[in-house]
Amino acid sequence: MHCDLGIINGPLLLFGGPYSNLQALEAVLATARVRTIPEHNMICTGDVVAYCAGALATADMLRASGAAVVAGNCEKQLGQGAQDCGCGFEEGSTCDLLSMGWYTFARSQLDDTTRKWMRECPDIISFHHQGARYAVIHGGVTEIARFIWPTDPEAVFMQEWQALESAIGPVDHVIAGHCGLAFVKDTSRGRWINPGVIGMPAHDGSMQTRYGILEQGAVQLHALEYDVEAAVREMRAAGLTQGYERALRSGYWPSEDVLPLALRGASLASG
């Protein structure tokens, strides 16, 4: 499903992966208010519910905010009542094994209204900004849970660009999520923009998470401060102690399995 938001020429707040982190969502929505960014100028790249403890509350708050949300693999899977997150982790990897814990918890927290909302999230969002057409997807068009990294070769981006344009027509720039890292990459077709995620740190040793502001045709990536300790307490109270609660404090994901070698850092930092 494709949703066209029309022309939006004011500042846009872009973010991904709330990941059931209610405190981080509260912080990014507060940022929008401070910057006087209206609700229809906020876009989320999906995975509203995942690792943290506030599954239903986070989904309810995001729905009430009026932000546009593209479907992530978590929305697809939870909306359909699937048995796993469909995150694209390699079978048997640490990330795959850890997902069994948080996904089961998240699935148990959601009500039918939330699942219906998740099923209705579009696969692609598009809009025009300062004369350019943007498309918003989750991971990739060829595969919703495709991990696309800043270190990937041009061919990866071009494959997705072609699939996207086959679906909705010409696009000048792409906004995507899923991989968890914020980056802006200039390609031969335009900019590939990943504003990062707000629910988990950027695997850089900092507790801050990431979001982006699109304004006057340019994107700036920003660090997000939020109440980390409250999020950790809620995760522990819910029994979500597979390692993601430590990641909120350490700034490093509980496993680097999913990352390309060039982007790994936790082992180096602890060595």
From TrEMBL:
InterPro entries, alphabetized? Ap4A_hydrolase, Metallo-depent_PP-like, Pesterase_MJ0912
**Which Gene3D superfamilies does the record associate with it?**
3.60.21.10
Q: What is this protein called?
A: Diadenosine tetraphosphatase
Species whose genome carries this gene: Roseobacter fucihabitans
